Amino acid sequence: MADLKRWGQGEITRIRLEMDRLFDELCFDLDLPAMICRMSGDIELWEEGDTLVARMELHGVAPGDVSVVVLERLLVITARMVETVGGRSRSRAFRKEIKLPCAIRTEEAQVEFAQGVLVIRLPKCASQYVQIVRLIKK
Fold it and tell me: What is the pLDDT of residues 15-63, one digit of tens each?
């Protein structure tokens, strides 16, 4: 028991990626479509002032194969990649959705994709203040 080590995020990510790769190879061998997340990491989401920023790594995916849809409180990222291995083509696809913590001004959203990293800037809508009206008995 003294030789036990606590795994960090790096080890867990490495094992998850290896399991995804093995599952993907099995799907390829059985000629089944592979729903893969190994070509992408997790979505990071943080605030910069009045803007939400989402970041996701998509290595090996061409910019034309990525789709970003922003609804008022929902961010949807889809991507598709076709590879040819040994004369056989295989397609990989994934879809990730994030419920956003606030409404977004969708017309002002910005998307950048460079060196396999997708960065999405989502300006937040102004806060909607609630006014409490007291009922007066007559």
Answer: 877 887 787 677 667 766 555 444 445 788 889 989 999 998 887 788 8
Provide the whole-model pTM.
Answer: 0.62
Q: What is the CATH number of domain 38-123?
A: 2.60.40.790
The domain locations on the chain are: 38-123
What does the alpha-carbon distance between residue 6 and residue 56 come to, in Å, rounded to a whole number? 26
DSSP E strand stretches across 11-132: 34-35, 44-48, 51-57, 66-71, 74-85, 88-99, 110-114, 117-123
CA 25 from chain centre, in angstroms, equals: 23
Residue 17: its H or E element: helix 9-29
Q: Contact, 63 vs 113, CB < 8 A?
A: yes
